[in-house]
Design a protein that fits this description.
This protein has one domain. 0% of the residues lie in helices and 42% in strands. The protein is mainly β. Strands 1-2-5 form a 3-stranded antiparallel sheet, with no helix packed on it. Strands 6-7-8 form a 3-stranded antiparallel sheet, with no helix packed on it. The chain has a two-stranded antiparallel ribbon with strand order 3-4.
Length: 97
């Protein structure tokens, strides 16, 4: 599963940064991927690139389809879009074409 993560401005709800490299989120434990738990000495951390560094190079046409309140993470897999909300609910939908 490919997950794209970013830094959201909690006031404007705009993406201000995109995660570009960092610590692995999951490690293999037997045949199952499990969340990485950092040792007490810490982990490497993650690096973000500000969207202002590349925004002028892309042209996106977004259509407003509905509200997405309190989304803390998004992912896409097998042709479905997933969003996790602050209240620990997982939502999915087909992509809009």
């Amino acid at each position: 599963m490919e997950v794209i993560r970013g830094h959201l401005n909690s006031d404007t709800h705009e993406v201000e940064g995109i995660l570009v490299r960092g610590e692995a989120d999951f490690v293999q434990q037997g045949t199952c991927p499990v969340s990485l738990v950092c040792p007490t000495t810490g982990c490497r951390g993650e690096d973000c690139t500000r969207t202002t560094e590349f925004a002028q190079f892309i042209e996106l046409q977004w259509d407003h389809i509905s509200h997405a309140n309190d989304v803390v993470a998004m992912a896409a897999i097998n042709g479905k879009l997933f969003a996790a909300t602050r209240d620990n609910r997982l939502w999915w939908r087909d992509p809009v074409r």
